[in-house]
Design a protein that fits this description.
single chain, alpha/beta, 5-stranded mixed beta sheet, 9 helices, 12 strands
C-alpha cells in the first residue's frame, strides 16, 4: 500500500508505504487501510500543524465510486466493502472519495504527469494485467457501469491463450509484464526469469528474447490501435513494470503502432511520469475534487 499527504496543487508532501498483508484475509486488509489512513492523518497533524481536510482511497477491482463501495477485488478477497463509510468513521467524519486504482493513477498522470498538456489521453499501465484510463478534459471517463478503459480485454489473437475473463487472446494474456515473464521463462528455460530479465536479454541481442519481446510488442500495438481508433487521443501514456524497459519498449512500440495506423491520427506515445506514486497522488486529487464539489454545491 502506498499513501501520501497531498497539497491542493497535487504536491507530494509526505509519502509512506506498508505491506497489504493480504495473506491474513480480506478483513485484515481493510483494517490495514483504515489504520494506515489514521496514522497518516496523525502524522500530518504532528508535522504540518493541521489535519487533512479530506481523504481519497484508490482500490483495485470493481468499484462503485458513487456509493463508496469496493464491490469486488479477486486479489484481495473482498466483496461489497463500504470503504467510504468505514474510512469516514475511522477519520472522525472526514469527507472520503473512493476511486479505481488505474483510473485514479490516470487522473494524476493527466493533471500533473505525462498528460498534463493533453486534452484527450489514454493511460495504460502494463503490469500483472493491463487496464486503461480514458482522460477527457482533466477528468477520467468511468463509463456507464464503471468498466470503461478495460483495454486489457480487447481480443487481439482470437486463437490465443485463455484469459481469466472467459475469452481467448486478450491483450493482457500476451503483452502484460506477467505475460512477458511467462513467455521468457519458457523460452529461456529459467522458471525464475521475468520481464525485466527479458528486456536485458533483448538489449544484449539474444534472439530468443527478441522473439518474445517482438510478439508482446506486436500484440500491444494491435490493442493500442484498436483503442486509438475508438478514442482518438492526442497522447498514449504507457506505465507499469514493462515501461521501465524505456526505449527497449518505446522504440519498437512506436514503430509498430505507426505501421498499423491508416486514417487515424498518430498520438504521442510517452512513458508515464509519476511511477508508482500515481495512485496515491490521484487519490489526493480525488479528495480535493470532492471538497471543491461540496463547496460549489
Amino acid at each position: 500500500m502506498k499513501a501520501a499527504l497531498v497539497g491542493a496543487d497535487g504536491a507530494l508532501l509526505h509519502e509512506a508505504r506498508r505491506a497489504t498483508d493480504r495473506k491474513r484475509g480480506a478483513d485484515a486488509v481493510v483494517e490495514s487501510i483504515l489504520s494506515f489512513a489514521a496514522d497518516l492523518r496523525a502524522y500530518g497533524e504532528e508535522h504540518f500543524g493541521e489535519s487533512a481536510v479530506a481523504a481519497g482511497v484508490a482500490v483495485p477491482g470493481i468499484v462503485d465510486a458513487d456509493n463508496g463501495v469496493a464491490v469486488y477485488a479477486a486479489n484481495l478477497g473482498w466483496r461489497d466493502v463500504p470503504m467510504r463509510q468505514l474510512l469516514g468513521e475511522r477519520l472522525g467524519g472526514l469527507p472520503v472519495a473512493l476511486g479505481h486504482d488505474v483510473r485514479t493513477g490516470g487522473l494524476a498522470e493527466g493533471r500533473i504527469g505525462a498528460g498534463k498538456d493533453a486534452d484527450r489521453f489514454l493511460f495504460v499501465p502494463l503490469g500483472t494485467g493491463i487496464a486503461g484510463a480514458i482522460g477527457i478534459a482533466g477528468t477520467i471517463e468511468a463509463g456507464a457501469h464503471g468498466y470503461a478503459g478495460e483495454i486489457g480485454h480487447i481480443v487481439v489473437r482470437p486463437d490465443g491463450p485463455d484469459c481469466g475473463c472467459g475469452q481467448r487472446g486478450c491483450l493482457e494474456t500476451l503483452a502484460s509484464a506477467a505475460a512477458v515473464s511467462r513467455a521468457w521463462a519458457a523460452a529461456s528455460g529459467d522458471p525464475e526469469a521475468d520481464a525485466a530479465d527479458c528486456a536485458k536479454a533483448v538489449e544484449s541481442g539474444d534472439p530468443a528474447a527478441e522473439a518474445v519481446w517482438r510478439d508482446a510488442v506486436d500484440a500491444l500495438a494491435a490493442g493500442l490501435v484498436t483503442a486509438l481508433t475508438l478514442l482518438d487521443p492526442t497522447t498514449l501514456i504507457i506505465g507499469g513494470g514493462l515501461a521501465e524497459a524505456g526505449e527497449t519498449l518505446f522504440t519498437p512500440l512506436r514503430a509498430a503502432v505507426e505501421e498499423r495506423v491508416t486514417f487515424q491520427k498518430l498520438p504521442h506515445i510517452v512513458p508515464a511520469a509519476l511511477g508508482d506514486t500515481a495512485g496515491c497522488l490521484g487519490a489526493g486529487l480525488l479528495a480535493w475534487d470532492l471538497l471543491s464539489t461540496e463547496v460549489s454545491v
